[in-house]
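Support case: adenosine-5'-triphosphate complex. Customer-provided input:
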Amino acid sequence: MARRKPPLPRLLLDNVSCMRNAQQILRNVNASIHDGAGLVLSGTNGSGKSTLLRMLAGFNRPTAGQVLWNGHDITDSGVFHQYKLQLNWLSLKDAIKDKFTVLDNVLWYELLEGKQGNSMAAIELMGLGKLAKEKSRMLSMGQRKRLQLARLLAIDRPIWLLDEPSVALDVEGTKLLEYIIHEHRKKGGIVIVATHLPIAMEDAMVLRLPPRFPRLMTFVDMLDRGGPD
Ligand SMILES: Nc1ncnc2c1ncn2[C@@H]1O[C@H](COP(=O)(O)OP(=O)(O)OP(=O)(O)O)[C@@H](O)[C@H]1O
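Agent response - structure generated as follows:
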């Protein structure tokens, strides 16, 4: 009897490396990510978590290796055109318009997405219901983060790429973040998080990036090794 092939991972990091200014930031990173999976990128400052996340978003190209979506290289322009519609990106830059109300800041994104009817429910779920009609400049840091998360929910795309999503959130906000991640994965969504802070994600893979590779041997290295090679 013919054996059934295992399903392709939705996303595959295939020996991904990255150089910046002649420095090796990432080296031979591999990961298979299936629907419903969670992946936590951890590592010290400067280890390349955001770089990898940006690569997954298609903002940076790998220097070597490839990121495959459904088996296709995301840097191919035809593929990227489709792939980018799958992504929800959240970073420390919140892209919130201060002069818009909280509701409009979510509604605007939802309308651009060609959707409707999700914004208010998302704002309420994130605990901002009473602030919906307020100008966004009134918001605290944690409330701004909640607004960003409300956008994720309203837009509702399958692949979430989250850079430090719990920064500025209080305990309840972090619990809400964990809840929406859990619910999204339950529906088959993928969540990839770069974080220093603990975020509870059941059965998530953890990719711990090593500290950055030194570019040149330092004077101290040379002394330790008894001189240059
Ligand atoms: N555009 C760029 N040009 C040159 N170097 C860059 C660029 N972007 C990032 N780097 C370098 O790449 C390294 C990895 O940066 P990155 O932001 O990915 O790290 P990180 O793990 O997210 O760090 P942190 O925990 O501090 O957020 C850093 O040393 C940074 O200086």
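The radius of gyration is 20 Å.

Case will auto-close in a few days if no follow-up is received.
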